[in-house]
Amino acid sequence: MNLDSTWDAHLALYPQSTVFHTTAWFNVLQSAYRFTPILLSQDNPDGAQSHLVLMEINSPLTGRRGVSLPFTDLCEPLCSSAESMRELFQQAITFGKARKWKYLELRGGRSLLPEAISSLKFHSHLVDLNHTEETLFSRFDGSVRQAVRKAEKSGVTVEFSTSIDAVKTYYLLHCKTRRKHGVPPQPFAFFRAIQEQIIARELGVVFVAKHNNRPISAAIHFHFGGQAIYKFGASDEAFQHLRGSNLTMWEAIKWHRRHGSKSLHLGRSSLAGDGLRRFKLNLGAAETNIDYVKFDFFKNQFITETDQAHGWHTRIFRMLPPAASRLIGAVLYRHIA
So what's the pLDDT on residue 308? Predict the structure, then answer.
């Protein structure tokens, strides 16, 4: 099986597949960051196939390595048994040694590699959309229901769009939010590629909340094979009292349900990020953990890491002028994926 026009149709055989397994996402990473996609496959005794999709990152600053997959919170291997996963992992190790990788990172699949230790852990939250809108709303925490009603009463409206203009609107809010959190924004070229490869191909949508025709909150969601993903969210802190983010999420949930999605994945959350975790739990989401696995080729062993979501660097980025932060993001992300 090759990563060509037949690959996306082939993904229908794997219930764990998401938009991140599609050629659309590979094209985004190739276009924006020049990463190279790699598909490893294994024939199973039952005649089916197992697959592991990787991206090779070749950076003059941070070296060459394999990641499954960059800029994704979760990307499960397309296999169902520990035996097939072990075969795929050994293929990846052999390939990585030949390519002189520094490390191999898997963002999912640790349950099929019992010998592997977890390099990083995150919370994961999933909203089951197999309910009526009334039931979904009733599962929200009371504070969330109140926030949604306040936004509606305040005249906040939510628009759905697949246009590049909507992506540009999102990006302006994205830069504000990233500065607030002390993180440089990804380059706009990344979001342009998302619009061209995913959103324009009806695999994603932009939700924009407005008040008096001014954008105050926005989000980018992906969807594929019945699974929706909340990928990016941003807002204008000056209008936080209008609760635009709450209304944006509620309208997105209704949109996904009406368009056939069975679940909405809310992404990963740092174990130290209590505020974000509460926000997701208050949406009635079920919580599990995501375990990453990292194999160091120099040490020839699995290694652990420390979550770098917060630290001295976030304080520095909060103080930088927006233009400087955007310039750093444009240079940095290709090397730290």
Answer: 65
